[in-house]
Amino acid sequence: GSSLLKDSAGDEDYEEVLVKSEGDEVSYSNETAGSSSKNTTLLKRLAMVAILGGCAVAAVFLLFPHGGGSSSSSGDSPSSSQYTVKYCVTSSIKSTCTPVEVATQYTHQPVDTSVDECDETTDQEGSVSWADLTLPAGRVLFVEVSTNVKGQNSNSGFFVRPTRRTREWGKATVTATSASFHLADTGQFSVEFASSDSWWSETSLKFDALMLFVNPTLTIPKRVKLISDTTNSTAIDLGPNEAYVFGAGKTYDWGRDQVFKVHDNTQIYFEPGVNVRARIVQTEKKVDRVLISGYGTLETHYDLKPDLVGISDDATHQSIGIYGKNIKVFGVTIINTNPNCGTWGYCLNLNANWSPIGDPTDVFGADELQDQTLPAPDYKPRQAHCQEQNMDDSANTNFDNCPTSHADGNSVEFVKCMTWQMGQDGLNAGKYGTVDNSFVRVIDDSIKPWDSHGVYTNVTIWQQALGWPINFGWWSWVQPDLSTVVEDIHVIHNHNWHTSA
Protein backbone atom coordinates (compact mmCIF):
# COMPACT_ATOMS: atom_id res chain seq x y z
CA GLY A 1 0.00 0.00 0.00
CA SER A 2 0.83 3.64 0.23
CA SER A 3 3.09 3.24 3.26
CA LEU A 4 5.56 1.31 1.11
CA LEU A 5 5.84 3.90 -1.62
CA LYS A 6 7.21 7.35 -1.97
CA ASP A 7 6.75 9.69 -4.90
CA SER A 8 10.27 10.21 -6.16
CA ALA A 9 9.53 13.55 -7.80
CA GLY A 10 11.45 16.11 -5.79
CA ASP A 11 13.54 13.50 -3.99
CA GLU A 12 17.03 14.95 -4.27
CA ASP A 13 18.88 11.64 -3.97
CA TYR A 14 16.85 10.16 -6.78
CA GLU A 15 17.16 13.21 -9.00
CA GLU A 16 20.94 13.03 -8.77
CA VAL A 17 20.91 9.66 -10.56
CA LEU A 18 19.17 11.23 -13.51
CA VAL A 19 21.60 14.13 -13.93
CA LYS A 20 24.77 13.81 -15.96
CA SER A 21 27.82 14.55 -13.84
CA GLU A 22 30.83 16.50 -15.05
CA GLY A 23 33.42 14.18 -16.57
CA ASP A 24 31.05 11.24 -16.56
CA GLU A 25 31.08 9.36 -19.84
CA VAL A 26 27.70 7.76 -19.07
CA SER A 27 24.41 9.61 -18.89
CA TYR A 28 20.84 8.64 -18.11
CA SER A 29 18.04 10.43 -19.91
CA ASN A 30 14.59 11.22 -18.50
CA GLU A 31 12.35 9.35 -20.92
CA THR A 32 10.52 6.03 -20.76
CA ALA A 33 12.85 3.03 -20.77
CA GLY A 34 13.42 1.39 -24.14
CA SER A 35 12.00 -2.04 -24.88
CA SER A 36 13.93 -2.98 -27.93
CA SER A 37 12.84 -24.84 -13.74
CA LYS A 38 12.74 -29.96 -6.05
CA ASN A 39 14.04 -32.99 -7.44
CA THR A 40 16.67 -35.24 -5.95
CA THR A 41 20.03 -35.49 -7.64
CA LEU A 42 19.33 -39.10 -8.57
CA LEU A 43 16.03 -38.29 -10.25
CA LYS A 44 17.57 -35.43 -12.17
CA ARG A 45 20.45 -37.56 -13.43
CA LEU A 46 18.24 -40.52 -14.33
CA ALA A 47 15.93 -38.20 -16.18
CA MET A 48 18.82 -36.63 -18.06
CA VAL A 49 19.93 -40.09 -19.21
CA ALA A 50 16.36 -40.97 -20.23
CA ILE A 51 15.56 -37.74 -22.07
CA LEU A 52 18.20 -36.19 -24.27
CA GLY A 53 18.28 -32.50 -23.84
CA GLY A 54 18.21 -31.50 -20.32
CA CYS A 55 17.68 -30.58 -16.79
CA ALA A 56 15.90 -27.79 -15.02
CA VAL A 57 17.81 -24.84 -13.48
CA ALA A 58 18.31 -21.41 -12.10
CA ALA A 59 21.65 -21.12 -10.28
CA VAL A 60 23.19 -19.68 -7.16
CA PHE A 61 25.52 -16.83 -6.32
CA LEU A 62 26.59 -15.27 -3.06
CA LEU A 63 27.83 -11.72 -3.02
CA PHE A 64 30.88 -10.88 -0.95
CA PRO A 65 32.40 -7.42 -0.54
CA HIS A 66 36.01 -7.19 -1.68
CA GLY A 67 36.42 -10.96 -1.89
CA GLY A 68 35.56 -11.40 1.78
CA GLY A 69 33.84 -14.35 3.39
CA SER A 70 30.58 -12.89 4.65
CA SER A 71 27.44 -12.32 2.68
CA SER A 72 26.71 -8.82 1.56
CA SER A 73 23.94 -6.65 2.75
CA SER A 74 21.58 -5.49 0.08
CA GLY A 75 21.41 -1.98 -1.33
CA ASP A 76 24.22 -0.95 -3.61
CA SER A 77 25.84 -4.10 -4.97
CA PRO A 78 29.19 -4.98 -3.34
CA SER A 79 32.45 -4.44 -5.14
CA SER A 80 35.24 -6.83 -6.06
CA SER A 81 38.98 -6.71 -5.56
CA GLN A 82 39.61 -9.53 -8.07
CA TYR A 83 39.87 -7.18 -11.04
CA THR A 84 40.24 -3.51 -11.78
CA VAL A 85 38.14 -2.21 -14.70
CA LYS A 86 38.42 1.20 -16.31
CA TYR A 87 36.72 2.52 -19.42
CA CYS A 88 35.81 5.57 -21.42
CA VAL A 89 33.82 6.38 -24.55
CA THR A 90 35.61 7.21 -27.78
CA SER A 91 34.78 7.64 -31.44
CA SER A 92 36.37 4.59 -33.10
CA ILE A 93 38.50 1.50 -32.56
CA LYS A 94 41.48 3.53 -33.76
CA SER A 95 41.23 6.13 -31.00
CA THR A 96 41.74 6.04 -27.24
CA CYS A 97 40.71 8.18 -24.29
CA THR A 98 41.46 8.41 -20.57
CA PRO A 99 39.58 5.58 -18.87
CA VAL A 100 37.93 5.96 -15.47
CA GLU A 101 37.62 3.14 -12.94
CA VAL A 102 34.15 1.65 -12.46
CA ALA A 103 32.73 -0.59 -9.73
CA THR A 104 33.05 -4.33 -10.19
CA GLN A 105 30.73 -6.71 -8.38
CA TYR A 106 31.60 -10.17 -7.13
CA THR A 107 29.87 -13.48 -6.53
CA HIS A 108 30.84 -17.10 -5.94
CA GLN A 109 29.44 -20.49 -4.90
CA PRO A 110 27.24 -19.76 -1.87
CA VAL A 111 27.11 -23.35 -0.61
CA ASP A 112 29.94 -24.20 1.80
CA THR A 113 30.76 -27.61 0.34
CA SER A 114 33.35 -28.25 3.05
CA VAL A 115 30.43 -28.43 5.50
CA ASP A 116 27.49 -29.34 3.26
CA GLU A 117 28.05 -32.20 0.81
CA CYS A 118 25.96 -30.88 -2.05
CA ASP A 119 25.69 -32.83 -5.30
CA GLU A 120 23.75 -29.94 -6.81
CA THR A 121 26.95 -27.88 -7.05
CA THR A 122 28.58 -30.57 -9.25
CA ASP A 123 32.02 -29.44 -8.00
CA GLN A 124 31.58 -25.98 -9.54
CA GLU A 125 33.57 -23.39 -7.63
CA GLY A 126 35.41 -20.24 -8.66
CA SER A 127 33.87 -16.79 -8.85
CA VAL A 128 32.53 -14.15 -11.18
CA SER A 129 33.31 -10.46 -11.05
CA TRP A 130 31.30 -8.24 -13.34
CA ALA A 131 30.88 -4.64 -14.36
CA ASP A 132 28.06 -2.86 -16.17
CA LEU A 133 29.36 -0.48 -18.83
CA THR A 134 27.23 1.86 -20.94
CA LEU A 135 27.82 2.38 -24.65
CA PRO A 136 26.09 5.31 -26.35
CA ALA A 137 24.84 4.68 -29.87
CA GLY A 138 27.49 5.14 -32.55
CA ARG A 139 30.40 5.19 -30.11
CA VAL A 140 33.11 2.75 -28.98
CA LEU A 141 34.43 1.80 -25.54
CA PHE A 142 38.12 1.82 -24.71
CA VAL A 143 38.67 -0.57 -21.80
CA GLU A 144 41.60 -1.25 -19.46
CA VAL A 145 41.52 -4.36 -17.25
CA SER A 146 43.97 -5.58 -14.60
CA THR A 147 43.75 -8.94 -12.86
CA ASN A 148 44.52 -9.21 -9.16
CA VAL A 149 43.80 -12.94 -9.06
CA LYS A 150 46.70 -15.01 -7.76
CA GLY A 151 48.24 -17.09 -10.53
CA GLN A 152 46.48 -15.29 -13.38
CA ASN A 153 48.60 -13.75 -16.12
CA SER A 154 48.76 -13.50 -19.87
CA ASN A 155 51.81 -15.77 -20.30
CA SER A 156 49.68 -18.59 -21.72
CA GLY A 157 47.06 -16.46 -23.38
CA PHE A 158 44.61 -13.59 -23.23
CA PHE A 159 41.10 -13.58 -24.71
CA VAL A 160 38.01 -11.42 -24.77
CA ARG A 161 35.16 -13.78 -25.64
CA PRO A 162 33.13 -14.35 -27.71
CA THR A 163 36.10 -13.93 -30.02
CA ARG A 164 33.79 -14.34 -33.02
CA ARG A 165 32.74 -10.79 -32.23
CA THR A 166 35.73 -9.16 -30.58
CA ARG A 167 38.31 -10.19 -33.21
CA GLU A 168 36.78 -7.56 -35.49
CA TRP A 169 37.67 -4.71 -33.14
CA GLY A 170 41.45 -4.81 -33.19
CA LYS A 171 44.17 -6.49 -31.20
CA ALA A 172 44.47 -5.98 -27.46
CA THR A 173 47.55 -4.40 -25.89
CA VAL A 174 48.63 -6.89 -23.23
CA THR A 175 51.08 -6.95 -20.32
CA ALA A 176 51.53 -9.79 -17.82
CA THR A 177 48.47 -8.87 -15.70
CA SER A 178 46.70 -6.12 -17.64
CA ALA A 179 45.24 -5.44 -21.05
CA SER A 180 43.55 -2.66 -22.99
CA PHE A 181 41.16 -3.15 -25.91
CA HIS A 182 38.10 -1.76 -27.67
CA LEU A 183 34.49 -2.93 -27.49
CA ALA A 184 32.54 -1.57 -30.43
CA ASP A 185 29.09 -2.99 -29.70
CA THR A 186 26.80 -3.90 -26.85
CA GLY A 187 26.91 -7.44 -25.48
CA GLN A 188 28.38 -9.62 -22.76
CA PHE A 189 32.10 -10.30 -22.81
CA SER A 190 34.39 -12.59 -20.82
CA VAL A 191 37.89 -11.22 -20.17
CA GLU A 192 40.33 -14.08 -19.62
CA PHE A 193 43.97 -14.23 -18.62
CA ALA A 194 44.12 -17.95 -19.47
CA SER A 195 45.04 -20.37 -22.23
CA SER A 196 42.48 -22.07 -24.46
CA ASP A 197 43.63 -25.50 -23.27
CA SER A 198 42.98 -24.70 -19.62
CA TRP A 199 39.21 -25.08 -20.05
CA TRP A 200 39.55 -28.87 -20.42
CA SER A 201 41.18 -29.15 -16.99
CA GLU A 202 39.44 -29.64 -13.63
CA THR A 203 41.06 -26.42 -12.51
CA SER A 204 38.73 -24.54 -14.84
CA LEU A 205 35.89 -25.30 -12.40
CA LYS A 206 37.65 -22.96 -9.97
CA PHE A 207 38.33 -20.12 -12.39
CA ASP A 208 37.83 -16.57 -11.17
CA ALA A 209 36.03 -14.95 -14.08
CA LEU A 210 35.45 -11.38 -15.21
CA MET A 211 32.40 -10.42 -17.28
CA LEU A 212 31.88 -7.03 -18.89
CA PHE A 213 28.23 -6.26 -19.58
CA VAL A 214 28.11 -3.57 -22.25
CA ASN A 215 24.65 -2.03 -22.24
CA PRO A 216 22.88 0.65 -24.26
CA THR A 217 22.04 3.92 -22.56
CA LEU A 218 19.18 3.48 -20.12
CA THR A 219 16.29 5.85 -19.60
CA ILE A 220 14.27 6.18 -16.38
CA PRO A 221 11.26 8.48 -16.06
CA LYS A 222 11.21 11.11 -13.34
CA ARG A 223 7.76 10.68 -11.88
CA VAL A 224 7.91 7.19 -10.40
CA LYS A 225 7.25 5.95 -6.88
CA LEU A 226 10.27 5.01 -4.81
CA ILE A 227 9.77 1.55 -3.31
CA SER A 228 10.38 1.53 0.43
CA ASP A 229 12.91 -0.84 1.97
CA THR A 230 10.74 -1.40 5.07
CA THR A 231 7.75 -3.75 5.11
CA ASN A 232 6.39 -6.61 7.23
CA SER A 233 4.37 -8.12 4.40
CA THR A 234 5.64 -11.21 2.57
CA ALA A 235 4.03 -10.10 -0.70
CA ILE A 236 3.53 -6.55 -1.96
CA ASP A 237 1.30 -5.62 -4.89
CA LEU A 238 2.77 -3.30 -7.51
CA GLY A 239 0.22 -1.68 -9.80
CA PRO A 240 -1.97 -1.63 -11.66
CA ASN A 241 -1.27 1.50 -13.66
CA GLU A 242 1.75 2.64 -11.67
CA ALA A 243 5.49 3.14 -12.12
CA TYR A 244 8.02 2.34 -9.40
CA VAL A 245 11.75 2.44 -8.82
CA PHE A 246 14.19 0.55 -6.59
CA GLY A 247 16.52 3.34 -5.45
CA ALA A 248 20.27 2.84 -5.28
CA GLY A 249 20.49 4.40 -1.83
CA LYS A 250 18.11 1.91 -0.25
CA THR A 251 18.90 -1.38 1.53
CA TYR A 252 16.47 -3.83 -0.03
CA ASP A 253 17.08 -6.75 2.31
CA TRP A 254 14.21 -7.80 4.58
CA GLY A 255 16.04 -10.75 6.17
CA ARG A 256 13.60 -13.15 4.49
CA ASP A 257 12.12 -13.96 1.11
CA GLN A 258 10.27 -10.93 -0.24
CA VAL A 259 7.84 -11.06 -3.17
CA PHE A 260 6.47 -8.29 -5.35
CA LYS A 261 3.32 -9.17 -7.33
CA VAL A 262 2.85 -7.25 -10.55
CA HIS A 263 -0.42 -6.19 -12.13
CA ASP A 264 -1.52 -4.66 -15.44
CA ASN A 265 0.30 -1.67 -16.85
CA THR A 266 3.07 -1.65 -14.25
CA GLN A 267 6.61 -0.39 -14.67
CA ILE A 268 9.44 -1.31 -12.28
CA TYR A 269 12.83 0.35 -12.65
CA PHE A 270 16.19 -0.48 -11.07
CA GLU A 271 18.64 2.34 -10.54
CA PRO A 272 22.20 1.49 -11.59
CA GLY A 273 23.98 -0.57 -8.94
CA VAL A 274 20.98 -1.22 -6.71
CA ASN A 275 20.77 -4.74 -5.21
CA VAL A 276 17.32 -6.09 -4.36
CA ARG A 277 16.88 -9.32 -2.39
CA ALA A 278 13.41 -10.18 -3.67
CA ARG A 279 11.44 -11.89 -6.43
CA ILE A 280 8.94 -10.47 -8.93
CA VAL A 281 6.03 -12.78 -9.79
CA GLN A 282 2.43 -13.12 -10.94
CA THR A 283 1.07 -16.67 -11.37
CA GLU A 284 -2.49 -16.23 -10.09
CA LYS A 285 -3.66 -14.44 -13.22
CA LYS A 286 -2.39 -13.23 -16.60
CA VAL A 287 -1.33 -9.61 -16.85
CA ASP A 288 -0.78 -7.16 -19.68
CA ARG A 289 1.95 -4.54 -20.14
CA VAL A 290 4.61 -5.07 -17.48
CA LEU A 291 8.06 -3.49 -17.77
CA ILE A 292 11.00 -4.44 -15.53
CA SER A 293 14.02 -2.36 -16.51
CA GLY A 294 17.37 -1.20 -15.23
CA TYR A 295 21.00 -2.02 -14.57
CA GLY A 296 20.53 -3.26 -11.02
CA THR A 297 20.59 -6.75 -9.47
CA LEU A 298 17.65 -8.92 -8.44
CA GLU A 299 18.88 -11.49 -5.95
CA THR A 300 17.11 -14.60 -4.66
CA HIS A 301 18.83 -15.30 -1.36
CA TYR A 302 16.47 -16.60 1.33
CA ASP A 303 14.55 -19.88 1.67
CA LEU A 304 11.00 -19.72 0.35
CA LYS A 305 8.14 -20.45 2.73
CA PRO A 306 6.53 -23.73 1.64
CA ASP A 307 3.58 -23.77 -0.73
CA LEU A 308 2.08 -20.28 -0.55
CA VAL A 309 0.05 -20.00 -3.75
CA GLY A 310 1.22 -17.13 -5.90
CA ILE A 311 4.13 -16.47 -3.55
CA SER A 312 6.25 -19.59 -3.02
CA ASP A 313 4.48 -22.53 -4.63
CA ASP A 314 6.39 -24.36 -7.36
CA ALA A 315 4.99 -22.13 -10.10
CA THR A 316 6.61 -19.12 -8.45
CA HIS A 317 10.03 -20.67 -7.79
CA GLN A 318 11.52 -18.09 -10.12
CA SER A 319 13.35 -14.84 -9.55
CA ILE A 320 11.03 -13.43 -12.21
CA GLY A 321 7.99 -15.57 -13.03
CA ILE A 322 4.99 -13.97 -14.69
CA TYR A 323 2.04 -15.03 -16.87
CA GLY A 324 0.70 -12.70 -19.53
CA LYS A 325 1.52 -10.66 -22.63
CA ASN A 326 3.53 -7.53 -23.37
CA ILE A 327 5.94 -8.36 -20.53
CA LYS A 328 9.34 -6.78 -21.08
CA VAL A 329 12.43 -7.37 -18.96
CA PHE A 330 15.41 -5.21 -19.85
CA GLY A 331 18.93 -4.95 -18.45
CA VAL A 332 18.51 -6.57 -15.04
CA THR A 333 21.16 -8.89 -13.57
CA ILE A 334 19.51 -11.90 -11.88
CA ILE A 335 21.37 -14.06 -9.38
CA ASN A 336 20.51 -16.73 -6.79
CA THR A 337 22.65 -16.63 -3.65
CA ASN A 338 20.78 -19.05 -1.38
CA PRO A 339 23.53 -20.83 0.61
CA ASN A 340 21.45 -23.96 1.22
CA CYS A 341 21.84 -27.03 -0.94
CA GLY A 342 18.96 -28.07 -3.17
CA THR A 343 17.28 -24.72 -3.71
CA TRP A 344 15.84 -24.41 -7.21
CA GLY A 345 14.08 -22.05 -9.60
CA TYR A 346 14.65 -20.26 -12.88
CA CYS A 347 16.24 -16.89 -13.21
CA LEU A 348 13.39 -15.86 -15.49
CA ASN A 349 10.36 -17.78 -16.74
CA LEU A 350 7.57 -16.03 -18.62
CA ASN A 351 4.46 -18.10 -19.41
CA ALA A 352 6.11 -21.32 -18.21
CA ASN A 353 4.56 -24.13 -20.22
CA TRP A 354 4.79 -26.57 -17.28
CA SER A 355 2.90 -24.67 -14.59
CA PRO A 356 -0.82 -23.78 -14.23
CA ILE A 357 -2.76 -20.83 -12.88
CA GLY A 358 -2.45 -20.85 -9.09
CA ASP A 359 -5.29 -22.58 -7.22
CA PRO A 360 -5.49 -21.61 -3.53
CA THR A 361 -7.47 -24.80 -2.75
CA ASP A 362 -4.89 -27.18 -4.25
CA VAL A 363 -1.23 -26.20 -4.29
CA PHE A 364 0.61 -27.19 -7.47
CA GLY A 365 3.79 -29.23 -7.17
CA ALA A 366 6.25 -29.64 -10.02
CA ASP A 367 6.72 -33.29 -8.98
CA GLU A 368 3.25 -33.91 -10.44
CA LEU A 369 4.92 -33.71 -13.85
CA GLN A 370 8.16 -35.51 -12.99
CA ASP A 371 6.77 -39.06 -12.81
CA GLN A 372 8.87 -41.05 -15.31
CA THR A 373 6.40 -43.98 -15.35
CA LEU A 374 5.21 -45.04 -18.79
CA PRO A 375 2.49 -44.76 -19.76
CA ALA A 376 2.26 -41.40 -18.09
CA PRO A 377 -0.17 -41.17 -15.17
CA ASP A 378 -3.38 -39.16 -15.29
CA TYR A 379 -2.87 -35.54 -14.38
CA LYS A 380 -5.05 -33.20 -12.38
CA PRO A 381 -7.43 -30.88 -14.29
CA ARG A 382 -5.36 -27.82 -13.53
CA GLN A 383 -6.23 -24.64 -15.39
CA ALA A 384 -3.73 -23.61 -18.03
CA HIS A 385 -2.71 -20.01 -18.46
CA CYS A 386 -1.71 -19.68 -22.12
CA GLN A 387 -1.13 -23.36 -22.93
CA GLU A 388 -3.49 -24.85 -25.49
CA GLN A 389 -4.48 -27.69 -23.14
CA ASN A 390 -5.09 -27.80 -19.41
CA MET A 391 -2.89 -30.13 -17.40
CA ASP A 392 -5.28 -33.08 -17.92
CA ASP A 393 -5.23 -32.41 -21.68
CA SER A 394 -8.72 -30.90 -21.78
CA ALA A 395 -9.01 -27.83 -23.98
CA ASN A 396 -8.09 -24.46 -22.53
CA THR A 397 -10.79 -21.93 -23.44
CA ASN A 398 -9.43 -18.82 -21.74
CA PHE A 399 -6.71 -17.00 -23.65
CA ASP A 400 -7.22 -13.54 -22.22
CA ASN A 401 -3.91 -11.68 -21.96
CA CYS A 402 -2.07 -14.35 -23.90
CA PRO A 403 0.34 -13.43 -26.72
CA THR A 404 -1.05 -13.94 -30.21
CA SER A 405 1.97 -12.72 -32.19
CA HIS A 406 5.40 -11.20 -31.70
CA ALA A 407 3.67 -7.82 -31.50
CA ASP A 408 2.33 -8.63 -28.02
CA GLY A 409 4.81 -11.38 -27.14
CA ASN A 410 7.15 -11.11 -24.18
CA SER A 411 10.63 -9.66 -24.53
CA VAL A 412 13.88 -10.25 -22.63
CA GLU A 413 16.84 -8.07 -23.57
CA PHE A 414 20.24 -7.38 -22.01
CA VAL A 415 19.34 -9.63 -19.06
CA LYS A 416 22.15 -11.44 -17.22
CA CYS A 417 21.49 -14.69 -15.34
CA MET A 418 24.15 -16.26 -13.11
CA THR A 419 23.61 -19.23 -10.75
CA TRP A 420 25.59 -22.01 -9.02
CA GLN A 421 23.30 -25.01 -8.31
CA MET A 422 21.52 -27.67 -10.32
CA GLY A 423 17.81 -26.87 -10.54
CA GLN A 424 18.32 -23.18 -11.20
CA ASP A 425 17.75 -22.73 -14.91
CA GLY A 426 18.24 -19.75 -17.16
CA LEU A 427 15.83 -17.90 -19.43
CA ASN A 428 12.49 -18.64 -21.09
CA ALA A 429 10.16 -16.05 -22.64
CA GLY A 430 7.29 -18.33 -23.67
CA LYS A 431 5.20 -18.53 -26.84
CA TYR A 432 5.92 -15.66 -29.19
CA GLY A 433 8.62 -14.57 -26.76
CA THR A 434 12.02 -13.12 -27.61
CA VAL A 435 15.30 -13.47 -25.72
CA ASP A 436 17.93 -11.23 -27.25
CA ASN A 437 21.38 -9.93 -26.36
CA SER A 438 21.50 -11.65 -22.97
CA PHE A 439 23.92 -13.73 -20.87
CA VAL A 440 23.43 -17.03 -19.01
CA ARG A 441 25.88 -18.84 -16.72
CA VAL A 442 24.20 -21.75 -14.90
CA ILE A 443 24.66 -25.39 -13.76
CA ASP A 444 21.49 -26.46 -15.53
CA ASP A 445 19.79 -25.55 -18.78
CA SER A 446 20.60 -22.10 -20.09
CA ILE A 447 17.97 -21.24 -22.68
CA LYS A 448 14.74 -23.19 -23.01
CA PRO A 449 12.95 -22.80 -26.35
CA TRP A 450 10.03 -25.06 -25.42
CA ASP A 451 7.24 -23.04 -27.02
CA SER A 452 6.07 -22.15 -30.50
CA HIS A 453 7.24 -19.03 -32.31
CA GLY A 454 10.03 -18.19 -29.88
CA VAL A 455 13.10 -16.19 -30.90
CA TYR A 456 16.45 -16.68 -29.15
CA THR A 457 19.17 -14.54 -30.69
CA ASN A 458 22.59 -13.21 -29.78
CA VAL A 459 22.73 -14.98 -26.42
CA THR A 460 26.11 -15.56 -24.75
CA ILE A 461 26.27 -18.78 -22.70
CA TRP A 462 28.86 -19.97 -20.20
CA GLN A 463 27.60 -23.49 -19.47
CA GLN A 464 28.79 -24.85 -16.13
CA ALA A 465 29.29 -28.47 -15.07
CA LEU A 466 25.77 -29.78 -15.72
CA GLY A 467 22.84 -29.03 -18.01
CA TRP A 468 22.57 -28.04 -21.62
CA PRO A 469 23.23 -24.72 -23.31
CA ILE A 470 20.03 -25.24 -25.33
CA ASN A 471 17.22 -27.47 -23.99
CA PHE A 472 14.29 -28.19 -26.32
CA GLY A 473 11.95 -29.91 -23.85
CA TRP A 474 11.51 -31.74 -20.57
CA TRP A 475 8.09 -31.85 -18.91
CA SER A 476 5.27 -34.33 -19.56
CA TRP A 477 2.72 -31.54 -20.05
CA VAL A 478 3.40 -31.45 -23.75
CA GLN A 479 2.47 -28.42 -25.86
CA PRO A 480 3.07 -27.63 -29.55
CA ASP A 481 6.58 -26.44 -30.37
CA LEU A 482 6.68 -24.93 -33.84
CA SER A 483 8.57 -22.27 -35.77
CA THR A 484 11.10 -21.23 -33.16
CA VAL A 485 14.35 -19.52 -34.14
CA VAL A 486 17.61 -20.13 -32.25
CA GLU A 487 20.34 -18.06 -33.86
CA ASP A 488 23.73 -16.55 -33.06
CA ILE A 489 24.22 -18.33 -29.73
CA HIS A 490 27.76 -17.81 -28.41
CA VAL A 491 28.74 -20.75 -26.15
CA ILE A 492 31.99 -19.33 -24.85
CA HIS A 493 32.58 -22.23 -22.41
CA ASN A 494 30.92 -25.56 -21.65
CA HIS A 495 32.03 -27.52 -18.56
CA ASN A 496 29.39 -30.18 -19.21
CA TRP A 497 32.21 -32.66 -19.91
CA HIS A 498 32.78 -32.79 -16.13
CA THR A 499 29.52 -34.71 -15.56
CA SER A 500 29.17 -36.48 -18.91
CA ALA A 501 29.71 -40.24 -19.22
Short description:
By secondary structure, the chain is mainly beta. It is built from 3 helices and 31 strands.
Task: Explain this structure.
The protein has about 500 residues and is mainly beta. The protein has helices at about 10-20, 40-50, 165; strands at about 5, 60-65, 75, 85-90, 100, 105-110, 125-135, 140-145, 160, 175, 180-185, 185-190, 210-215, 225, 235-240, 240-245, 260, 265-270, 275, 280-295, 295-300, 320-330, 335, 345-350, 410-415, 415-420, 425-430, 435, 440, 455-465, 485-495. Strand 10 (about 175) and strand 11 (about 180-185) form a beta hairpin. The N and C termini lie far apart (about 55 Å).
Average pLDDT reading: 85
| Biggest pleated-sheet summary | 20 strands, mixed
Q: What's the end-to-end separation, in Å?
A: 54 Å
By helix and strand content, what is the structural category?
Answer: mainly beta
Shape: globular
* Multimerization status: single chain
What is the helical fraction, as a range of percent? under 10%
Radius of gyration over alpha carbons?
Answer: 22 Å
Q: How many helices in DSSP terms?
A: 3
Number of strands: 31
- Strand content is 25-35%
Low-pLDDT segments? 1-77
